[in-house]
Amino acid sequence: MEARTPKDKVIEKPLMGPDPKTNKRSAAIKVVMLASKIVESALSNPFFTASRAFIFLFASSLILSKTKTLAST
Fold first, then answer.
1. Basic and acidic residues bias located where (predicted)?
2. Can you give the residue range of the structural domain that contains 65?
3. What pLDDT score does 57 carry?
4. How far apart are CA 17 and CA 10, in angstroms?
5. Which of 12, 29, 49, 64 is the most exposed place for a label (fewest CB within 10 A)?
6. Nearest-angstrom CA–CA distance, 24 and 31
């Protein structure tokens, strides 16, 4: 005599809905638009971009010199 295999009774929870779909396309578009704005800003005002780089370079050198002074004492 063959034994019958029992069937699983699966009842879905009534308050559970489908998984929410994330809109990946809009996130990618936002990243591209931000990069585009950064490039546009840099091209429209190159002096400001260069002066900011100089300030960061100077500040970096100043911090490095203070670190060397502190290390030598």
1. 1-12
2. 30-72
3. 60
4. 16
5. 12
6. 11
φ, ψ at 2 (rounded to 5°): -85, 140
Rounded to 5°, the CA angle 65-66-72 comes to 90
pTM of the model: 0.34
Place of tokens 């060397």: 68
When the pLDDT of each residue in the chain is averaged and rounded to a whole number, the result is 69
No. of H helices and E strands in the chain? Answer: 2, 0
Extract the residue ranges of the chain whose pLDDT is less than 50: none
Position 55 scores a pLDDT of: 61
- Provide the token pair at 7: 């069937």
Q: What is the pLDDT of residue 66?
A: 63
The DSSP line for 3-63 is: PPPPPP-----TT--PPPPP-HHHHHHHHHHHHHHHHHHHHH-HHHHHHHHHHHHHHHHHH
Total domain count for the chain? 1
